[in-house]
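Quick review question:
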């Protein structure tokens, strides 16, 4: 018999793509202990909630989900235990609170300590975990970077892969918890990034998305031992054989330097789409947010990017109802959206977060005002998004199909501009980049027909 009993691990992931990446790494670090992934908490011997603290609603989900897990564990009639762990940004920000409010939790682990999970699982078991709430808490910011201690990631097995290159943030925007939950900025060395990229390409990836809370602030050790900037890393990665698409997210306007803008014109694999959050269209609010730039600065970047890479589409994040935001400030956000013409944008009602300076500002706006502004902004954004999608009708574009659609015979993929595209096609086109003629545009997706000389490949298998 296998010495290590097989155990089932269920991870639920909230929040950003860095959490998605981290969840995969946690699964990797627990695999040698005999944990293999399963699809539901009901089957699991261990459940990890990988949490997000960015807005109040995101954070509160943790506690409601924990309540459900406790019930699930208590209801088990076969006496099987369930180690309950909370990871991610809520664990980091509210570790002590979790132990207090949910004492049945076995492990609380902050984002910088995932390499210590095996030891924590062992400690939880020794402390009689599996049901009693062993209360093993690790929310330090260890001196050693976790990346040096995590096993190499297992093959993601998908054509589109994430690769974390940078973590943490030193910007301290006044509304944001990330500098507190993820700690100081850290850039992985280029050699480690390249090794991981080669491994991903070797296991079938053709698209890599570089991740970081402040990804374009990356300034790690280069292959020559000297400090490199992000543009240099992009150029080296962009030349890797087999890499067809390169993306990066999320960027800060302050770190869009000339060299990176130039790289958008040079590196063919770099997709013509950039997520560049601006948050507000008002200089006054940007200042209060400590974004460290004004609107002219942002407009100038956009202009230079578009000059270097014609056809580049932009997306952004907006916050409405920041403390003190006047009607005029809000109008400026709407004006900026109209002026730039985003392919997509995410907008959020300002959510005061504990421990952040903006939460203490006077003139917090009433919920009703925030809701109304969100509605107005989203109407304009949606119009633009549909408008952008419509411009693609009739064109032929390369689509990376990476999933089966809901309907039989339907494939789902991504355009160069990160639009979801669906088309009828043979599943053997999965994980390949295929030309598609766009026939219809919806607010959040495009529909098309596969264009290829290989007739059989275009036929859907019903
Ligand atoms: N590092 C990225 C943002 C990470 S958080 C950047 O600098 O742009 C993702 C988005 O969540 C932010 O762009 C912002 O729009 C939103 N957000 C962050 N804190 C928020 C808060 N307190 N209330 C509402 N939205 C918030
Ligand atoms: Fe948060 Fe600002 Fe850092 Fe982005 S740059 S993670 S919004 S503090
Ligand atoms: Fe949320 Fe943490 Fe990401 S707060 S958005 S999971 S960095």
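Suggested answer, residue by residue:
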């Amino acid at each position: 018999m296998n010495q290590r009993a097989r155990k089932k691990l269920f991870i639920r992931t909230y929040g950003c793509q860095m959490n998605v990446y981290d969840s995969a790494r946690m699964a990797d670090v627990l695999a040698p202990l005999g944990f293999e992934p399963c699809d539901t908490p009901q089957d699991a011997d261990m459940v990890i909630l990988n949490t997000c603290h960015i807005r109040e609603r995101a954070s509160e989900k943790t506690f409601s989900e924990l309540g459900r897990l406790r019930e699930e564990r208590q209801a088990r009639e076969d006496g099987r235990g369930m180690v309950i762990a909370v990871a991610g940004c809520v664990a980091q920000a509210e570790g002590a609170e979790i132990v207090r409010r949910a004492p049945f939790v076995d492990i609380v682990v902050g984002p910088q300590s995932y390499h210590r999970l095996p030891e924590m699982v062992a400690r939880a078991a020794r402390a009689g975990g599996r049901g009693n709430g062993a209360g093993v808490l690790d929310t330090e910011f260890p001196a050693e970077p976790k990346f040096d201690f995590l096993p190499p990631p297992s093959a993601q097995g998908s054509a589109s892969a994430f690769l974390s290159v940078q973590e943490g943030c030193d910007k301290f925007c006044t509304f944001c918890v990330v500098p507190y939950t993820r700690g100081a900025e850290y850039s992985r060395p280029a050699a480690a990034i390249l090794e991981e990229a080669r491994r991903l390409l070797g296991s079938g990836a053709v698209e890599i998305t570089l991740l970081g809370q402040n990804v374009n602030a990356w300034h790690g050790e280069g292959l020559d031992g000297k400090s490199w900037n992000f543009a240099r890393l992009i150029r080296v990665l962009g030349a890797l054989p087999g890499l067809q698409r390169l993306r990066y997210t999320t960027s800060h306007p302050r770190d869009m330097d000339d060299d990176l803008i130039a790289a958008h014109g040079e590196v063919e694999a770099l997709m013509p789409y950039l997520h560049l959050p601006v948050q507000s269209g008002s200089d006054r609010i940007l200042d209060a947010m400590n974004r460290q730039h004004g609107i002219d600065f942002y407009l100038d970047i956009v202009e230079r990017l578009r000059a270097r890479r014609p056809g580049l589409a932009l997306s952004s994040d907006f916050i409405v109802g920041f403390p003190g935001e006047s009607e005029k400030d809000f109008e400026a956000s709407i004006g900026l959206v109209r002026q730039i013409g985003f392919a997509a944008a995410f907008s959020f009602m300002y959510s005061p977060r504990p421990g952040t300076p903006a939460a203490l500002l006077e003139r917090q706006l009433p919920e009703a005002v925030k809701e109304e502004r969100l509605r107005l902004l989203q109407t304009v954004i949606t119009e633009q998004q549909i408008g952008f999608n419509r411009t693609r009708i009739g064109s032929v574009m390369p689509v990376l199909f990476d999933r089966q659609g809901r309907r039989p015979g339907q494939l789902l993929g991504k355009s160069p501009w990160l639009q979801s595209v669906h088309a009828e096609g043979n599943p053997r086109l999965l994980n390949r980049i295929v030309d598609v003629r766009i026939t219809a545009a919806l607010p959040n997706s495009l529909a098309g027909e596969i264009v290829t000389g290989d007739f059989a490949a275009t036929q859907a298998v019903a």
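Why it works: The CA atoms of residues 402 and 431 lie 5 Å apart. The domain at 150-389 is CATH 3.80.30.20 (pyruvate-formate lyase- activating enzyme).
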